[in-house]
Every structure is written in structure tokens, then in C-alpha cells.
Amino acid sequence: MKVLIVSSSDNDVRWITNILAEEEIVSIDSCTNSTDAIQLLALNHYNLVLSEVYLTVLTGFDLKKLMNSFGYDIPVLFFTDKVNDNIRKEAKYAGVIDCFSTDHLDKELPSVCAKIGGVQA
């Protein structure tokens, strides 16, 4: 499985990378904004995109819209410090798998990877 992490926080990237390492993810790339994410998506095949909701320049929602407009049919999972019902509803409407609080990502991310898993990059 190949994963792209989009986050403005180096700490979040390291933490998520550690979680994914325990799930035997084959390859992990990361970037700090949606513009760079679109460039990476054009160059690589990913099985999952993990994106912070509130990024600089473009939000995670903007990233998902761009992915849709370019025809990228890749599962997207959002994360943020605080998740509320409105964010979850908007994420579902945008076609995002789910939106998790960073407080619970270590518990929730492995189950998402297991659902998507089995696909090797």
C-alpha cells in the first residue's frame, strides 16, 4: 500500500508515519500543502490520501475537489485537531471516507488501512 500524507505539521507527519509503519505500509510520501499533493498525485499511484482539513493555501476540502476534477479515484481520510458533526457531514458529502480527530487517529487509522489493505503499491 502506498500512502500520501498532506499536513502542515511535521509532528503529525512523523506520528502518522509511525502509526502506518506498524500497519506494514509499503511506501509513505508527504507534503505540506494541497498544491504539492496534486503534483505528487500526478507522478505516483497512491492507495490512500491522509489530509489535514485546515491546510495553508487550500484546505483538505479543496484538495478533494481538485482530486475529483482530475479524476483521481483514491480514498481520502481527513484529520484535524477537533472534529464536529458539521465537518464530518461536509467530509462525507465531499466523498471523504471519514474525518478523525488527531486524538483518535492512532486507534482509527489501522482499521481504515485494514479495509483498504491488501492492495500493494
CATH class: Alpha Beta
Secondary structure class reads alpha/beta
Radius of gyration: 13 Å
The overall number of domains is: 1
Compute the number of strand runs: 5
What is the average per-residue confidence, as pLDDT, rounded to a whole number? 87
The helix tally amounts to 5
User: What is the H/E order?
Assistant: EHEHEHEHEH
Distance between the termini: 5 Å
Could you please say which CATH topology applies here? Rossmann fold
Q: Helical residue percent?
A: 40-55%
For the largest beta-sheet, the strand count, sense and barrel status come to:
5 strands, parallel
Which strands sit side by side, in order, in the main sheet?
2-1-3-4-5
Going by CATH, the architecture would be 3-Layer(aba) Sandwich
What's the shape? globular
Strand fraction equals: 15-25%
The CATH fourth-level homologous superfamily: Response regulator
Produce a short descriptive summary.
The chain has 121 residues and is α/β, with parallel strands linked by helices. The chain has helices at residues 10-22, 34-43, 60-69, 85-94, 105-116, and strands at 2-6, 27-31, 48-52, 76-80, 98-101.
